[in-house]
From TrEMBL:
Protein's recorded name: Endonuclease GajA/Old nuclease/RecF-like AAA domain-containing protein
Domain Endonuclease GajA/Old nuclease/RecF-like AAA: 12-104
Organism: human gut metagenome
InterPro entries: AAA_GajA/Old/RecF-like
């Protein structure tokens, strides 16, 4: 599809860089969805100086876990689990408030 667009416009295409603040407003959920489809890169030891305090040295599987968690099925499952946990927490909070109201009318 990209090739067709580039071929259609050819040299007439005018491209401008525009910086967007993806931490606010409607852009935030869109960016979060797009990030799932972006590749995950990590530098190898030969590419940079590493020290024992670097998180990647301490936890070499961190990059792999990060990439695995971007899988849509896993993300959906974790979202489902998070919803269940939130529901259970809400139940506990509601029961706690009811007991407090009973004790202090």
């Amino acid at each position: 599809m990209r090739t067709a667009i580039w071929s259609y416009y050819g040299d007439d295409m005018q491209v401008n860089s525009v910086e967007l603040d993806v931490t606010k407003g409607d852009a935030k959920p869109i960016w979060e969805k797009l990030q799932k489809y972006l590749p995950v890169y990590s530098l190898f030891q030969a590419d940079r100086k590493n020290s024992d305090s670097d998180s990647e040295v301490q936890d070499p599987l961190h990059a792999a876990v990060k990439e695995i968690l971007q899988d849509e099925d896993i993300s959906r499952t974790l979202d489902h689990v998070a919803g269940i946990v939130e529901g259970k927490l809400q139940e506990v909070a509601t029961r706690t408030l009811e007991k407090l109201r009973e004790m202090s009318p």
